[in-house]
């Protein structure tokens, strides 16, 4: 029996208008350019890729916070814009990349974490208080911070408040944008262990955006790699991370900083300039930086090449 | 011997709260020389950012600070008037803040904020300021720089914002750069590029770098020296090979065991974690503050002597009774 994936998007596009100066010509920035993806129940899909490649924009669309300019998103088989907002926020929770701006500065930690419970009318005041205490404990925050305001917390403490809030109402799907990048590795280990056990116990599904390939390797079932608005490679984690088919994926893996003091800074062998999203290169997006670019790469955008359970957008993908 | 660029000795930061006084930073000392990179690592909430803010004399109002010595290029930062501090900040010493929104003003464009640093310190004409801003945005990969200059912070991705902050900190050609988690929002290819840029600046201009990071990969690859903090104190210092290769403090060893990494068990297996939590730093504390989480703790660890720094070799200091014993 095949069940619809929990989340599926097809040819999703998002553009932003950008102008040069006050009176400049409006130009269109393609933040997400034709993304097709699906996330199965209970699965962890990791989204990695270039900074500015559209990961957060995609996440915001999956959360229903930003409408796509084109394409469709299905949540549990239903078009996302047809799903009742209350139901959606009950079942899908975000952990945003920037814990500074996503926490209300005027609320205490206790109120921030209890807020989703209040909105959805879950529990009595007393039960909510206990739940908040449990959640803070789960993410490793000291009871001392319960009545603190966000500005009184360290960066990592704020991020843990955001995670506690997202977990408060037991969502089905958690969309985590760099959930542990503000945390030291001992707290990170604690949070990752927590996410793993929630997954095992409650069957939670995750979309995990992360720059940390070791975290991705540890958590993900599938990995999607983004570059300039497109998914350039996608497949089972084991394959994408051990036998990458796209040269950008290989460059990412080569740039990872393992904690080995005998090694210096890596050179991923990417030539050329940083990409310009207002003026994406013709042909393959990646060709100006690609060590294996040839004429066909400059001329023609590569088609998707599927291979078993994986796909890559490269003229030379085996 | 030349004078270090930044000298910190016996730095204490306390914050009064409803429950009492929090000893957030409790006798921290280190120095950063010209052209040198010191990495500061440690548990979330252990006082790294407050230490950095204290060095910039930018602590939040609620915080109180004392120090046996806090000096930049021989200038006593504790007694310098605010005017002189404002002259230093952004010019001779600059900071990349952990919180991008502290440094970036949401209602001004990226370009205006970068050029403002230039104007404030009268470093040249507006046109020169714009040129420099565009050049630094290009070098940090914020492209297309001209269009990005006209954008507002909320229109940028997390990593672009972080690179704008890096560019902003470099506008005044600082001698000392304090960077608080400067690359957390960057993918690893750009992270490597930014770290290489910082290293070039170090070679060209002998930039001193105090780098706060929890990324042990960065520590291993760029630090000259490392200081590990726990509960407001520096518990271990040394070179990256010493600290990562032969950690002598149980906290450092615990930290290393938390690294997710290939070959350390199957995907999804439980990661090593340090059991327990940091003790409350409100009110009086004594002895080693890690002892409640330490597998090797014994009765003596509760004594004041337990947390005395032990020097194993020059620059190799460990605050643990058993520091001399190899693990
Ligand atoms: N509100 C907006 N207005 C204009 N441009 C925007 C807006 N939001 C995002 N963008 C642009 O869209 C592109 C993709 O941004 P996005 O935040 O999705 O990237 P990202 O992959 O999450 O990057 P990072 O890893 O740096 O967080 C960037 O060029 C960004 O500047
Ligand atoms: N303005 C403030 N008011 C009250 N307490 C504060 C304030 N700023 C920081 N603290 C507390 O001081 C301690 C140290 O904070 P600091 O920001 O220096 O931690 P950190 O080591 O930088 O942590 P992280 O790695 O999570 O950023 C924390 O326990 C924090 O809750
Ligand atoms: Mg992002
Ligand atoms: Mg901090």
Task: Outline the structure in words.
The complex is a heterodimer of chains A (318) and B (327). Chain A is an alpha/beta fold. Chain A has a single domain, classed as Rossmann fold. Chain A contains eleven helices and twelve strands. In chain A, the strands form two sheets. In chain A, strands 6-7-8-3-9-10-12-11 form an eight-stranded mixed β-sheet, with helices on both faces. In chain A, strands 2-1-4-5 form a four-stranded antiparallel β-sheet. In chain A, strand 4 and strand 5 form a beta hairpin. Chain A is globular, with a radius of gyration of 21 Å. The model of chain A has no long low-confidence stretch (mean pLDDT 91). By secondary structure, chain B is of the alpha/beta class. Chain B has two domains: 231 residues, Rossmann fold (3-Layer(aba) Sandwich); 70 residues, no CATH class. In chain B, 31% of the residues lie in helices and 23% in strands. Chain B is built from eleven helices and 13 strands. In chain B, the strands form three sheets. A six-stranded mixed β-sheet of chain B has the order 7-8-9-3-10-11, with helices on both faces. In chain B, a hairpin with a 2-residue loop joins strand 12 and strand 13. The longest helix of chain B has 18 residues. Classes of the chains: A alpha/beta (318), B alpha/beta (327). At the A-B interface, strand 1, helix 1, helix 6, helix 7 and helix 8 of A face helix 3, helix 7, helix 8, helix 9 and helix 10 of B. The structure holds adenosine-5'-triphosphate (2 copies) and magnesium ion (MG) (2 copies). One adenosine-5'-triphosphate sits at the interface of chains B and A.
């Amino acid at each position: 029996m095949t069940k619809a994936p929990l989340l599926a998007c097809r040819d999703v596009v998002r553009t932003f208008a950008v102008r040069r100066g006050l009176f400049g010509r409006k130009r269109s920035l393609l933040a997400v350019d034709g993304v097709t993806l699906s996330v199965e129940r209970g699965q962890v899909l990791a989204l990695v890729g270039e900074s500015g490649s559209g990961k957060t924009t995609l996440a915001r669309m999956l959360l229903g916070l930003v409408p796509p300019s084109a394409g469709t998103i299905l949540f549990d088989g239903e078009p996302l814009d047809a799903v009742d907002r209350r139901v959606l926020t009950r079942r899908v929770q975000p952990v945003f990349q920037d814990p500074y701006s996503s926490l209300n500065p005027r609320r205490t930690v206790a109120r921030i974490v209890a807020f989703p419970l209040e909105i959805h009318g879950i529990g009595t005041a007393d039960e909510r208080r206990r739940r908040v205490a449990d959640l803070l404990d789960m993410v490793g925050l000291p009871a001392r911070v319960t009545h603190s305001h966000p500005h009184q917390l360290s960066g990592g403490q704020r991020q843990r408040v955001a995670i506690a809030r997202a977990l408060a109402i037991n969502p089905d799907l958690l969309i985590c944008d760099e959930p542990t990048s503000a945390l030291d590795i001992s707290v990170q280990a604690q949070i990752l262990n927590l996410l793993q056990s929630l997954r095992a116990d409650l069957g939670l599904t995750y979309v995990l955006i992360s720059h940390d390939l070791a975290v991705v390797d540890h958590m993900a079932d599938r990995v999607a790699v983004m570059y300039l608005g497109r998914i350039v490679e996608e497949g089972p984690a084991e394959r994408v991370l051990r036998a990458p088919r796209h040269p950008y994926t290989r460059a990412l893996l080569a740039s990872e900083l393992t904690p080995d003091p005998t090694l210096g800074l890596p050179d991923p062998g990417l030539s050329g300039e940083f990409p310009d999203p207002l003026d994406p290169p013709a042909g393959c997006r990646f060709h100006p930086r690609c060590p294996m670019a040839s004429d066909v790469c400059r001329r023609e955008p590569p088609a998707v090449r599927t291979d078993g359970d994986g796909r890559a957008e490269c003229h030379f993908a085996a | 011997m030349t004078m270090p660029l930044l000298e910190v000795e016996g730095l204490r930061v306390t914050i009064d709260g409803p429950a009492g006084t929090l000893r957030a930073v409790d006798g921290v000392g280190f120095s950063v020389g010209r052209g040198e990179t010191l990495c500061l690592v440690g548990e979330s909430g252990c006082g790294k950012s407050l230490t950095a803010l204290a060095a910039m004399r930018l602590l939040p109002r609620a915080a109180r600070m004392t120090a046996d010595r806090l000096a930049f290029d021989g200038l006593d930062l504790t007694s310098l008037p605010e005017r002189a501090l404002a002259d230093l900040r952004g010019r001779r010493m600059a900071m990349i803040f952990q919180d991008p929104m502290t440094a970036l003003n949401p209602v001004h464009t990226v370009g205006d904020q970068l050029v403002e640093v230039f104007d404030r310190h009268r470093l040249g004409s507006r046109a020169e300021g714009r040129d420099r801003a565009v050049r630094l945005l290009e070098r940090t990969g914020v492209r297309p720089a001209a269009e990005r200059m006209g954008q507002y912070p909320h229109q940028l991705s997390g990593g672009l914002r972080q690179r704008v902050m890096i560019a902003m900190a470099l506008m005044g050609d600082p001698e000392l750069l304090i960077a608080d988690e400067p690359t957390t929002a960057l993918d690893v290819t750009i992270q490597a590029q930014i770290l290489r840029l910082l290293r070039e600046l170090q070679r060209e201009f002998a930039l001193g770098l105090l780098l706060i990071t929890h990324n042990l990969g960065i520590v291993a690859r760029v630090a000259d020296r490392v200081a590990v903090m726990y509960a407001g104190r520096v518990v271990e210092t040394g070179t990256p090979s010493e600290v990562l290769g032969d950690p002598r403090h149980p906290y450092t060893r615990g930290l290393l065991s938390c690294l997710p990494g290939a070959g350390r068990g199957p995907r999804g297996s439980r990661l090593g974690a340090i059991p327990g939590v940091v003790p409350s730093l409100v009110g009086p504390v004594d002895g080693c503050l890690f002892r409640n989480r330490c597998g090797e703790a014994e009765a003596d660890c509760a004594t004041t002597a337990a947390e005395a720094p032990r020097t194993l070799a020059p620059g190799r200091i460990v605050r643990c009774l058993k520091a001399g014993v190899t693990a």
